[in-house]
Task: inverse folding
């Protein structure tokens, strides 16, 4: 095989690889399937509502807890809140990667901040669900 022929094959393979990578990147950046997009939004809002329920239950239990001097023990409610927080953040990553933010929202940032205790970010996440048509799945934060 001549050097000239092998360079042509290498360039062709390189171009084909670049096309495949570009296609993969473009397909992961936006959702062209409206039904799939709505399913991801519903999933996010369901998980946001579950996290809110767990977080509010944990806060209520913490406020009512005995303030004794005994050792601090993580409650099952805390574990549920932590698990629900991870789940809603994962769902927000899917929305972010699919380009399903709207109205200038930053759903991933808002969700991470909400799980971290930012009430304003929680309100923005709830507003996202409201504008997506899934307002009944979340509690109003404010």
Result:
């Amino acid at each position: 095989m001549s050097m000239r022929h092998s360079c042509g094959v290498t360039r062709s393979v390189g171009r084909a690889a670049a096309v495949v990578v570009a296609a993969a990147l473009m397909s992961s950046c936006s959702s062209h399937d409206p039904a799939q997009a709505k399913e991801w939004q519903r999933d996010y809002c369901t998980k946001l509502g579950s996290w809110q329920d767990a977080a509010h239950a944990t806060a209520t239990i913490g406020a009512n807890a005995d303030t004794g001097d005994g050792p601090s023990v993580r409650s099952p409610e805390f574990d549920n809140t932590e698990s629900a927080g991870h789940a809603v953040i994962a769902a927000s990553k899917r929305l972010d990667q699919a380009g399903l933010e709207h109205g200038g929202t930053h759903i991933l940032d808002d969700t991470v901040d909400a799980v971290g205790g930012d009430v304003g970010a929680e309100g923005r996440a709830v507003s996202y669900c409201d504008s997506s048509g899934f307002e009944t799945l979340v509690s109003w934060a404010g």
About this structure: Residues 71 and 128 are 40 Å apart (CA to CA). The chain is about 75% helix and 0% strand.
